Amino acid sequence: MPMTLRLDPDRLLPADPATREVARSLYASTAELPIVSPHGHVDPRLIFDDQPFPNPAELFIRYDHYVTRLMHAAGVELADLGIPAADGRPIAEPRQVWRIFCTHWGLYAGTASGYWLQHTFSTLFDIDEHPSAENADALYDRIQAALETPEFRPRALFARFGIEVLATTDDPLDDLAVHAALAADPTFTGRVVPTFRPDGYINPLAPGYAENVRALAAWGDYAVDDYAGYLRALEHRRRHFVEHGAVSADFGVPQPYTVDLGVERAAALYAEAVSGSISAADARELLGHMLLESARMSVDDGLVMTIHPGVFRNHSSSTFQAYGPDTGHDIPVAVEYVENLRPLLERYGNHADLHLVLFAIDETVYSREIAPLAGFYRSVYVGAPWWFIDAPDAVLRFRAAVTETAGFSRGSGFIDDTRAFLSIPARHDMSRRLDAAFLARLVVEGRIDRAAAEQIAGDLVVAQPTKVFKL
Length: 471
Description:
By secondary structure, the chain is mostly helical. About 50% of the residues lie in helices and about 5% in strands. It catalyses: D-glucuronate = D-fructuronate.
């Protein structure tokens, strides 16, 4: 018999009765506040097209590498999870993918993915039993029936979730026509904004770099090896994003390394990069220079600069060759901010027009580097726990690591950073509960008073991300 799935109303709140009572009150004060999501990866066409989600497997499994990676580790082939392979091998049908997932449901006990999925199943689909091999077909049919109703169209869910702002992540040459159409649509009252993501245009080692810079040169009508034209084109594309509502530019870099090469050296390395002859060491130098140039551009155009470093992309070569990127084998690595970011901070760290949000998957860097930097430099803010550490215990470790040094005012507010649209409410609810738990402990220990805790709890949800991301 399947086990009962029940959401504890006090989930994630402290076990101590006195602290839990305070946390309940703090959480209640934020539970119904709107969702501000200033960084994520939901495709804007999902909202624009407003088509029904096709089936439970597509919705919860196919595109969620949090989910697929654990089943792969347990021996399930990615093709059996509906992920197409380059060699054209057959992939499983959606119902069979769902059956495999339900059979392996026990893998997610204690994980953030399991927590979010339970929240989603219970609150959106009124599912009251854990998935299993026995109930897989019944759950599939139940979810499928709901997805075919108007209440489960993306725009209806956008409103139901209480999303005030949703940021997407977009290619610099995207014409942003979808964003423009959404902004002009009188039947859609939400706010969906693009984010400028230039990794494939500034990192010579990124897949597709040569094709990207050639396309940028064709758009800007300059010779592909013209460094000055390259910079102008990036600046013009950024302005195009600003004109379409963008508030930030996001950088996924191996390390937050910055360096000033000077114009002549940068131009020479850029010419080598576009010709394909640049060395790995010089590619690092050029990327470091372009990160510094991007900060200059942010000072000029006002786009918030967010840095997401420290990921070894596509660690499994065979999986990458067979299934492509974003299939569960990106692995965190250690990062260093103090020396790497110093050239940028020496020049722009206290500039009033720059907001610089620093993220990490390396937990050790929060208390040692990011919090102290944010506690001095006016431009620097502490990015919320991200990717492998946007999980309950890690979030509480994060709060303890940064608050005593940087306080609450130097944080970004919660960032869901998700492609999984239906998980957005679960992720934000998790964050609100954990902030309530952390603040409640400070209240009970006499470190802050209750009124201050209530103000901070609300600010972390709306005021802080609104300020940091200039919304």
